[in-house]
UniProtKB/TrEMBL annotation, chain A:
It is found in: Endoplasmic reticulum membrane. This is ER membrane protein complex subunit 2. Residues 100-209 form the EMC2 TPR-like domain. Pfam families: TPR_EMC2. Signal peptide: none annotated. It is a peripheral membrane protein. Keywords: Endoplasmic reticulum, Membrane, Repeat, TPR repeat. Part of the endoplasmic reticulum membrane protein complex (EMC) that enables the energy-independent insertion into endoplasmic reticulum membranes of newly synthesized membrane proteins. InterPro entries: EMC2-like (IPR039856), TPR-like_helical_dom_sf (IPR011990), TPR_EMC2 (IPR055217). It comes from the Eukaryota. The keyword Membrane applies. GO terms for cellular component: EMC complex. Belongs to the EMC2 family.
From TrEMBL, chain B:
One of its GO terms (cellular component) is EMC complex. Keywords: Membrane, Transmembrane, Transmembrane helix. GO terms for biological process: protein folding in endoplasmic reticulum. It is found in: Membrane. Signal peptide: none annotated. The keyword Transit peptide does not apply. The chain crosses the membrane at residues 14-33, 119-143. Belongs to the EMC3 family. It comes from the Eukaryota. It holds the Pfam family EMC3_TMCO1. This is ER membrane protein complex subunit 3. InterPro entries: EMC3 (IPR008568), EMC3/TMCO1 (IPR002809).
Length: 300, 246
């Protein structure tokens, strides 16, 4: 995850480069380090550096990394001839390289020839069956072809070996949510919370899934996770505030007559509602009436 | 008995400095040779999986209080289950790991290569030092030592009345051997093959590594008492919101 300082730095560099100031190389390095996806800009500025022989030689050995970065960005923007040129240069320099082989596989993927790409990836996997990136590319291919069940299967097999890869868990959770397999999604989110307990995003997503599953116990747990999200974000997360209100009213509905809930946090719902109103007043004052009517209907 | 021996500055010029320079150069040479000779070691499936299992189990232990009790318990059973739990290594298998490592030809070759690259330069340099630089006092250690160290530090010097602080060049060799590690990591970058002492420590704890750490994790996991931290969060959220709203 990109931290706030890194994000501001990235935006600053981006503005600087956009407005004609120098610093394209630092921008590209930062993009590569943070693994953000800014393919158009990378393509534009990367090509401007690569096509200028003076700047290219100034890079030294980093030139090849730049070729790889520009090739991937070009594939993202569907400029396949640029990609082919970059890959040709890289292949001339590193004829037996696995990284270039992987770029070739990605090019086949971008062109849409799935079978050939699959063949390329399997041959690369034969050499080194523990290459994480290639496994993940196969999953991405299955997902792009629309074959979600195979994507799930591949991802599960990948996670059996590399179970500490939290990006993979996140992808799996999102796939499950898209397929409405909420119990499995909840498991994935639990894994994510275990590996990074202070990231509010995972708490929020987990709470959403639990709320969707329904049932008194899940609703209570969801309410707790919404509360932890509020705590971790300092009360600024609107979705969590809504979540609290909805959860409390849902719990009240489900346990009508059994009043054992009140001992925990009776004021939480009213506080959340007040916070929401204040937020809306500040940011979207014209929608405030909608908010108040919705909240009022919840309190039934 | 503490007479001050005046040591010839020629000793410094022709013994101490050349010895250090030679050791640095040999270290650099060894680094490049090991880089050339390094064969690409295909990582083993099982070892990678075990490493990842350990990381996951450690995460579970660390953040156990953030997930609901039921999920924690089901995960704990998954890990430490008697029959097919991930962390459970039956006694028979633990022994096999080391035997397997020695019988696997690739790994044996690798180990031999690493040992060779470590032992041969050390032996050669030591013999060279002994041959050329023995029989005289090389340096004076700034702090006083007991008589026990005499045999170790004053090997070439056959006078028993010389203060133990005056040492032979052999001890300067050993000092360099252990002390130049820091210098090497400066000039050669982090990954240098001259890290003998580290490698020696690694070799002793070799074969049992995976199974021991697995059982250690399992024990740690069994101990953990799950205390769900989430209810506290509700109160904290309340406090946060109160501050925000007021």
């Amino acid at each position: 995850m990109v931290s706030k300082t890194e994000e501001t730095q990235l935006n600053r560099l981006e503005n600087q480069v956009d407005n004609g100031g120098g610093g394209a190389w630092e921008y590209l390095c930062l993009v590569r380090k943070l693994k953000v996806r800014r393919s158009e800009k990378v393509l534009k500025y990367g090509l401007s550096i690569l096509n200028d022989p003076k700047k290219r030689s100034a890079l030294g050995p980093e030139e090849w990394t730049l070729y790889e970065q520009v090739a991937i960005a070009a594939m993202d923007c569907q400029c396949l001839d640029v990609t082919k040129d970059c890959i040709k240069v890289l292949q001339k320099k590193f004829p037996e390289s696995k990284r270039v082989g992987r770029l070739n596989g990605m090019l086949l993927e971008a062109k849409g020839s799935w079978a050939e790409a699959e063949k390329a990836y399997s041959s690369l996997l034969e050499d080194n069956s523990l290459d994480q990136v290639i496994h993940k590319r196969r999953v991405a291919m299955a997902k792009a072809q629309g074959n979600i069940s195979e994507a799930i299967e591949l991802l599960n097999k990948y996670l059996e070996i590399f179970m500490a890869d939290h990006d993979a868990w996140r992808e799996l959770a999102e796939i499950y949510v898209s397929l409405q397999m909420y119990k499995q999604a909840a498991f994935c989110y639990e894994e994510l919370i275990l590996s990074q307990p202070t990231v509010p995003l995972y708490h929020l997503a987990y709470a959403d899934v639990l709320y969707t599953l329904g049932g008194l116990e899940n609703l209570q747990i969801a309410k707790k996770y919404y509360a932890s999200t509020i705590d971790l974000t300092g009360g600024k997360n609107t979705r969590a505030l809504f979540g609290i209100c909805l959860c409390t009213s849902a719990i009240a509905q489900v346990s009508k007559g059994r009043n054992k809930e009140d001992k925990e946090s009776p004021e939480l719902q009213s506080l959340a509602a007040t916070a929401l109103e204040k937020d809306y007043k500040q940011r979207a004052a014209d929608k405030l009436s909608l908010l108040t009517s919705a909240l009022r209907s919840l309190k039934i | 008995m503490a007479e001050d021996l005046v040591l010839d500055t020629a000793i410094r010029d022709w013994v101490l400095i050349p010895l250090s320079v030679v050791m640095v150069l040999i270290g650099i040479l060894r680094y490049f040779v090991s880089k050339l000779m390094r064969s690409f070691q295909v990582p083993d499936h099982k070892i990678v999986k075990e490493g990842q299992v350990i990381v996951r189990a450690r995460n579970l232990r660390a953040a156990a209080n953030f997930i609901p009790p039921k999920s924690f318990r089901s995960r704990r059973v998954y890990f430490s289950n008697e029959e097919n739990g991930l962390l459970f290594v039956p006694k028979g298998q633990a022994q096999n790991a080391q035997a397997q490592m020695f019988s696997d030809p690739n790994m044996a070759m690798d180990m031999m290569k690493k040992n060779l690259s470590m032992i041969i330069p050390q032996t050669l340099t030591f013999a060279w030092v002994n041959f050329f630089f023995s029989g005289f006092v090389a340096a004076k250690i700034p702090f006083p030592l007991t008589q026990r160290f005499r045999s170790m530090l004053q090997n070439g010097i056959d006078l028993s009345t010389v203060d133990v602080s005056y040492v032979s060049s052999r001890s300067w060799y050993f000092l360099n051997l252990f002390g130049l590690r820091g210098l090497f990591s400066l000039i050669l970058g982090e990954e240098n093959a001259t890290d003998d002492t580290q490698r020696m420590m690694q070799m002793s704890g070799f074969g049992f590594d995976p199974s021991k750490s697995l059982s250690a994790e399992k024990d740690g996991l069994d101990i953990v008492q799950h205390e769900w931290a989430l209810p506290k969060f509700e109160h904290r959220a309340e406090a946060v919101l109160k501050k925000l709203v007021s």
